[in-house]
Design goal:
about 350 residues, alpha+beta, BirA Bifunctional Protein, domain 2, 10 strands
């Protein structure tokens, strides 16, 4: 089709003579102008596709979407990296000493599975981590799902693998080829296979216990410190097995209080993926309120009394997981810097727009 123009009208004057640059580092410093670059606009379109097919997958799986709160009295992970919320003129606005921006919506999802046994959320999470690395942001999105009447870690792993394959299939569609190629011009690396490529090449993700994973690394003369895997170990496992890898049953002392335990192990898993290492994490939830109360630090008990009460009110066995959306985008598209997976990134000492 050929067009012959008869009139040209300027609808938006460019006073600064701005020309979109393709250099990712430069564009990161001007996030309000960055979408003018075709390469970054392509990334935003692909992000939208991932969000869309996430809702499609969980909706088709019979899950109900829930909006979890953006202000909470609890720090789910207990890592001390939460942002404290205060009103400008009233430090005691909510009547609690500390109120936080959420690190996770998990505990709130748990409160719903007693009546709606399959729920999920795609919410914003915050972590006050003083990091300038390519892998961390202070504000990010979490896809979290919780299921009632789940009794094994394998059931959770099955859902995660099915979901990731669903996303990978969508990103492999011919209709998205132009966006994939355009994004690759400015933001991606070819240092390793993408999650999309690995999903196409393996019929089932390997599943190893923590102890088995330690042994696989030891056979390659890679030692793991007592406090657990670092990112280098996670990526090495993916490289050795040439596949995303589920690692299950970590030592209980490495994991949060809410995870069900099997002896000295937690009934949990991490999903390790190319390019990012840990992509997803989940567990069966401890249902015994007395055991939970014993594990809670004394300073956390007051803010989590509602959670303990929940477990004393006929709560079914449950389990769930969380997946970092930005890390998923990195793994699928091999985006070098996580700050390039979202329109307006926030990280330590950086909050523009």
């Amino acid at each position: 089709m050929e067009f012959q123009a008869t009139k040209c009208e300027v609808v938006g004057k460019n006073d600064k003579n701005f020309i979109p640059k393709t250099d990712a580092d430069q564009l990161r410093g001007i996030p309000h102008l960055r979408p003018k670059a075709e390469t970054f606009a392509a990334l935003l379109k692909l992000r939208s596709q991932i969000n869309s097919c996430s809702h499609e997958f969980f909706g088709n799986s019979g899950c109900v979407h829930v909006d979890t709160p953006m202000i909470s009295v609890n720090d789910c992970e207990g890592a001390g990296e939460a942002f404290v919320v205060k009103a400008q003129k009233d430090d005691d606005f909510f009547g609690y000493t500390d109120v936080f921006l959420p690190v996770s919506g998990q505990l709130h999802l748990e409160s719903i599975v007693g009546s709606i046994p399959r729920v999920y959320t795609m919410g914003t999470a915050f972590r006050a981590e003083k990091s300038l690395s390519r892998q961390h942001m202070a504000e990010f999105r979490m896809l979290e799902a919780e299921f009632g009447f789940v009794n094994t870690v394998d059931e959770l792993c099955d859902v995660v693998e099915d979901y990731l394959r669903f996303v990978a299939k969508r990103l492999s569609s011919e209709s998205l080829r132009n966006e994939i190629e355009k994004a690759a011009e400015g933001y991606t690396s070819k240092d390793s296979k993408s999650l999309v490529e690995m999903c196409a090449n393996v019929s089932r993700f390997p599943r190893l216990t923590y102890d088995e994973a330690i042994q696989v690394l030891a056979e390659k003369d890679v030692k793991v410190p007592r406090d657990g895997f670092k990112k280098a170990h996670e990526l090495k496992l993916v490289e050795i097995l040439d596949s995303p890898v589920f690692v299950t049953h970590f030592p209980a002392d490495q994991k949060p209080f809410y995870m069900k335990r099997e002896g000295d192990k937690a009934a949990c898993f991490d999903l390790l993926a190319p390019f990012v290492g840990e992509l997803a994490g989940g567990s069966l939830r401890e249902n015994d309120a007395n055991l939970l109360e014993e594990r809670l630090p004394s300073e956390a008990t007051a803010n989590l009394d509602w959670y303990l009460e929940l477990k004393r009110c006929g709560q079914p066995p449950s389990g769930g997981f969380g997946i970092g959306v930005e890390r998923l985008i990195q793994a699928c598209l091999r985006v070098v810097n996580i700050k390039d997976t979202v329109a307006f990134p926030r990280w330590f000492k950086h909050c523009k727009c």
